[in-house]
Amino acid sequence: MLRRTIAGLLLGTSLVFGTIAVAEAASARIKDIVDFEGVRENQLVGYGLVVGLDGTGDSLNNAPFTRQSLQSMLERMGVNTAGETVRTDNVAAVMVTANLPPFATQGSRMDVTVSALGDANSLQGGTLLVTPLMGADGDVYAIAQGAVSINGFVAEGDAATVKSGVPTTGRISSGALIEREIAFQLAAQHSLRLALRNPDFTTSRRVALAINDFIGVPTAIPEDPATVRITLPQNFNGNIVDLITDIEQLVVDTDQPAKIVIDEDSGIIVMGKDVRVSKVAVAQSHLTVTIAEDPNVVQPAPFAAGQTAVEPNTDLDVLQSDSPLAVVEESVTLQELVDGLNALGIGPRDLISILQAIKATGALQAEIEVL
User: Fold this and answer.
1) Quick one: pLDDT at residue 355?
2) Contact yes or no for 142/100 (Cβ under 8 A)
3) Mean pLDDT in the chain?
């Protein structure tokens, strides 16, 4: 018997314990909620070759850029391979990426990430040759070279293959030598902007007030929800670096808009503490359609020259279950809202539809963001 069950949800709303994450605003250091102008990383990228692979490199016929790069490298070293057929699978073309730390000095080192560009199977055991790393302006800021360390591996035989992690991506710890510094004299600045990582008018104003209260003079001005400008006071005994050191440990109460974030794929729902809902009534109804196939076999009479046939027999059943109209009381706190939704006794994923329906009625005072 072939049995299929088709379940459809006409109107649903649900929430079970553990499916809502409650986001609450809290006190935080200024150091943890803002970025200081000029104190930032810079992204670098380069193209290079990884050699020494154990037959897991690029197939040169399918990766012409690897063959061209290999021939160019050999010619620079005095080896002429023009017109020759190069066949080696121990070389792989890679892209090298790195983040140049702020205020990095010439001669210091940084980590780099190496990623295969062609059809190499693994970078295990490979060594990256000298690779210039360029910034967005096209200038070279670092030189990378060294043995590649990967987290994955590939082992294969004639009939089976085992793969763990991503063996075509690896890292070189302290693998790049910084050759050029980015000129920015922070100590010479007389004013500086603070960029809030989560822009908000209230938080921006609180940051400025906290700085001014600590310094004692109006040295900080909130320019917009994302920016606070501070100016070095004339009677301050120090430079802008000393001022930053003093203010980055100040604690402020961060604020956030009322928002509900929904991830439909995983069924995760995150609500901010300021989410409010007016008094609403909610009902849900489930429609279940059950289709059962029980075919009958029909045999012809003896000596009737007939053929055996299959006669279809379908059993169709429709079941509709309705829940009574439930009232979700007007909530003052997020806990009251969660308690009211939990009292409905519904499933976690159905809450997405009911929250959007409540929002459509105007009873939900929050923004809904679906990932």
Assistant:
1) 78
2) yes
3) 78
More confident site: 1 or 120:
120
Residue 13 has pLDDT above 70, yes or no: no
Tokens of 6: 């088709």
Give dist(CA 17, CA 346) in Å, integer.
10
Contact criterion met (CB below 8 Å) for 53 and 118: no
Q: Which pLDDT does position 303 carry in this prediction?
A: 67
* Predicted pLDDT at 290: 57
Share of the chain above pLDDT 70, in %: 74
Give the up-direction half-sphere exposure of residue 19: CA atoms within 13 A in the CB hemisphere: 23
pLDDT at 59 over 80: yes
Residue 207: pLDDT above 90? yes
How far is it, in rounded angstroms, from Cα 232 to Cα 190? Answer: 5
3-state secondary structure string across the chain: CEEEEEEEEEECCCECCCCEEEECCCEEEHHHHEEECCCCCEEEEEEEEEECCCCCCCCCCCCHHHHHHHHHHHHHCCCCCCCCCCCCCCEEEEEEEEEECCCCCCCCEEEEEEEECCCCCCCCCCEEEEEEEECCCCCEEEEEEEECEECCEEEECCCCEEEECCCCEEEEEEEEEECCCCCCCHHHCCEEEEEECCCCHHHHHHHHHHHHHHHCCCCEEEEECCEEEEECCCCCCCCHHHHHHHHCCCEEECCCCCEEEEECCCCEEEEECCCEECCEEECCEEEEEEEEECCEEECCCCCCCCCCEEECCEEEEEEEEECCCEEECCCCCHHHHHHHHHCCCECCCCHHHHHHHHHHHCCEECEEEEC
What would the two tokens of residue 120 be?
């190499």
Q: Which two tokens stand for residue 332?
A: 């003052």
Q: What is the pTM of this model?
A: 0.66
Distance CA 152, CA 196 (A): 38
Whole-angstrom Cα distance, residue 245 to residue 170? 37
Angle at 173 between CA 133 and CA 31, to 5 degrees: 85
